[in-house]
Design goal:
- Helix content is 46%, strand content 28%.
- By secondary structure, the protein is α+β, with helices and mostly antiparallel strands.
- Strands 1-3-2 form a three-stranded antiparallel sheet.
- The longest helix has 29 residues.
Length: 80
């Protein structure tokens, strides 16, 4: 019998989806898969236990919030 897994998929939209996804990539673990489709960043996270999944989702959301804010600030300061 195989181990049970817990999964979460987080989909968010961004003005600079590719840049946000690239900023997140260094912090993603081997159990995370991120794709970009238009303005949507979609990340699937798989963990063996619910506690690990919750911790990974929490870390990801914090990193996502920072990446989006930095991209927004950079965009706002470089446009006339």
């Amino acid at each position: 019998m195989s181990e049970a897994t817990h999964e979460a998929t987080i989909a968010t939209t961004h003005d600079d989806a590719g840049v946000v996804a690239a900023a997140l990539a260094p912090d993603n673990t081997d159990t995370m898969t991120t794709t970009v489709d238009g303005d949507t960043v979609r990340t699937a996270i798989v963990r063996e236990d619910a506690g690990g999944l919750a911790a990974s989702v929490d870390d990801y959301v914090v990193n996502l919030t920072v990446a989006d804010a930095v991209c927004g600030t950079a965009r706002d300061t470089t446009q006339p």
